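User: When convenient, might I ask for sequence and structure tokens for a protein?

AI:
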Amino acid sequence: MLQKQYRLPAATRLRNSLSFISPPFSLRVSNNNLEYSRYGFLVKKTVDKRATVRNRIRRLFRSCIEEMLGEIKAGQDMLFILNNKIVEMKREDLYNEVHSFFKEKHLLQ
């Protein structure tokens, strides 16, 4: 579970954000002027109607971000919009996809 300081509050609006798209997820990034980054995860009901499946997807993706927490650049708000392709992915494949995506978009330190 992410510590509270790393969670993006629901009321936060991302202003002047950049959008990036990957097959399993979309990412919106905005500067937050803090010494750490905050992360939010959004899974729409169109992915799956069952809350248990959506929560599982959120937990799976959050665990990948927690593992990379020390590598990600600080001072940004990141909102991940997760697609239904994540349902079929294994955790190792998802981690590799996210890590290579961050490296490609220069979001790692």
